[in-house]
């Protein structure tokens, strides 16, 4: 029997619950892919944190105890910390995952944190806006792509308005669904297209 694949989801004060909700549900349940994953929350410590929506989360593990080769994905949500210039320890963790060839999915403010760490300089990426990342002083403007979500090798990025496209792109990068099912997924959850539902569940 194949061992279950693991997604590490970083959790920190004010992380944006809704930005990674679609993705985590599809990974954990496997309801449309047929491949359920284990989702492990990672905090700077194992002390509780409170999401932007006010939910109190107790991390499963501390950042110092995470080894990239024990996981199959790292997920980083936006939060106030990234815009305050914090989050360096999580950016370093992302660097370790990328160095190990393990995908990292970052949305909204997390892209700014990765930009500051130099992780977007050589990879295709997107965010809320090019100007948002340029404010970090990063050198990756030439690799900015004005799309809802972008796959740049092992890095998946998206802006804050695109949680469904973020989920779709990550499922695509992980090889969990074909293009027809991915389009149906976006059809149901973004376009509210009832004709897409039978394809999604088929």
Automatic annotation (TrEMBL):
Superkingdom field: Bacteria
Gene3D superfamilies: 3.40.50.880
Keywords assigned: Glutamine amidotransferase, Transferase
Residues passing through the membrane, by range: none
InterPro entries in alphabetical order: Class_I_gatase-like (IPR029062), DJ-1/PfpI (IPR002818), Prot/Nucl_acid_deglycase (IPR050325)
Pfam families recorded: DJ-1_PfpI
GO CC, one annotated term: cytoplasm
Molecular functions (GO terms): transferase activity
Residue span, DJ-1/PfpI domain: 10-172
Name of the protein: Glutamine amidotransferase
Lineage start: Bacteria, Bacillati, Actinomycetota, Actinomycetes, Propionibacteriales
